[in-house]
Amino acid sequence: MTLFMRWLSRWPLAWLHTLGAVLGWATWALSPSYRRRLNANAALAGLSAVQRRQSIAEAGRLVAEVPWLWFMPPGEQLGDRVSWHGEALIEDALAAGRGVLLLTPHLGSFEVSARSAAERFAKPITVLYRPARKAFLREMEETARARPNMATAPATLSGVRQLLRALKRGEVVGLLPDQVPPLGQGVWAPFFGKPAYTMTLAARLAQQTGAEVGLAWCERLADGAGYSIHIAPLDEPLPADPADDVEAARVINASMERVIRALPTQYLWGYNRYKSPRRLKADAGG
After folding, report:
1. DSSP 3-state of 212
2. Do 189 and 198 contact (CB within 8 A), yes or no?
3. Mean pLDDT computed over 14-23
4. SS3 content of the chain, % helix, strand, coil (to 5)
5. How far is CA 171 from the centre of its chain?
6. How far apart are the C-alpha atoms of 128 and 162, rounded to whole Å?
7. Taking CA atoms, which of 26, 122, 164, 185 is between 20 and 30 Å from 205?
8. Cβ distance 266 to 58 under 8 Å?
9. 233: which residues sit within 8 A by CB, 6+ positions away?
């Protein structure tokens, strides 16, 4: 598998995206549960039939560009393949010595966002992630993400402590707040009009550290032309009361909705956003 992915990584990005579109449609054709979930989630947001079809291909493109990103030679950078918009929010906060919490939905090329931020800004970026279950994928993830100014934090108590320390040092932290958290680490809040179990972590990180909170999304451009990263503030300020978890989750979900509506064809509508939370296993980390 590793050799195959290394071979794919040498393809031009446009070719990979063409392959990805085929993979996206193959997944759609072969998985009835995926079709039902994508249709149901997209219907909640009012997507047209054309937009749904485009989202199927874009989901495949996200998968197909992974080898290109993960196996990029260590000395190679994304550079001018990525354009930035609204990055003053990050620059101003870092210049003032404040940490920055970037919230990114399952939209576009969210892994490109972290890699490009690590290249562009002088501060490290720490990203919360859930390790892959398969050992070979975990190894590839760790190797791919071992880049200058990039750090990862597992979705455990020890990982949360790592995020807190990074923000208190005035660094950048990234996470996906539309990821379903374990039982006891979230609250039910509306997402496109339907209750979704929503993490409380994002708001608590900001409230405990005074970090600047920004929305970040990475748009995949057509024909392998690269990426466009957009940064914007939350639509509303988070509640001052750290105990008001439900209101904080509502504010964050509303901002996620706005970002997704700006680029609906690149959201992962097949993601099981409305599933029941899993039970949390004990964390042995320090």
Report:
1. strand
2. yes
3. 97
4. 50, 20, 35
5. 18
6. 9
7. 122
8. yes
9. 89, 213, 214, 215
